[in-house]
Design brief:
globular, 2 helices, 4-stranded antiparallel beta sheet, mainly beta
């Protein structure tokens, strides 16, 4: 059974008022805006973050080759949150034991073929992958 564990309220509050850190060990979650797609979540190095249509609240359905193509967003050394993010950030323990971040209950992923910040090429893949929205 996957049990969501809420990231501490203190970390969320600090993320809303503290300056963004450049610590490479801390995952910085932010928001980017694309003229065609509007606002979406970004993670490590400004990489675009996605959600998977087959997931359910606090449970990932992405396994095997899916995880190779869509690596889970993880943060073993902490998370810095952009002030624009007002939703609920949490951590779930996947069936494979990996702790994955969720936003508003939905597991978060990167697109392995995403090559640079602002690359939204994973949006709409197989009509299953969508930009994660703030």
């Amino acid at each position: 059974m996957n049990k969501a564990v809420m990231v501490s309220a203190l970390a969320l509050a600090l993320g809303a008022c503290a300056p963004m850190t450049a610590d490479p060990n801390v995952l910085t979650l932010g928001v980017a805006t694309d003229a065609a797609n509007g606002p979406y979540l970004t993670g490590a190095g400004g990489q675009t973050i996605y959600t998977f249509k087959n997931d359910t609240a606090n449970q990932s359905a992405c396994v095997g080759q899916c995880l190779t193509n869509w690596p889970a967003v993880t943060a073993s050394s902490g998370v810095q949150i952009s002030p624009e993010l007002r939703g609920k950030l949490a951590v779930i323990r996947r069936a494979d034991g990996v702790e994955q971040l969720t936003y508003n209950g939905m597991p978060l992923y990167y697109w392995a073929k995403g090559t640079a910040p602002g690359d939204v090429s994973g949006n709409g893949v197989n009509d299953l992958w969508m930009l994660a929205r703030p």
